Amino acid sequence: MNEKYSKICIVVEEGDESQYWLQIFNQVNYGNKNLLPPLIQECNEIVKITTSIKHKFQKKINKK
N or C: at which end does the chain have fewer Cβ atoms within 10 angstroms? Predict the structure, then answer.
């Protein structure tokens, strides 16, 4: 269980970093302006889902 938790933590961190860079690219007008908003939205959804999974793992670990 702890190995899965560690891996999901990495996924959340990487998603957060991807979110950060997509927002930076959007602010400095780098890249396709039509493509960035859907990518940012998709990244936000992935981070929310993986964060939820992380919290569920954390609750299971704390119960043991």
Answer: C
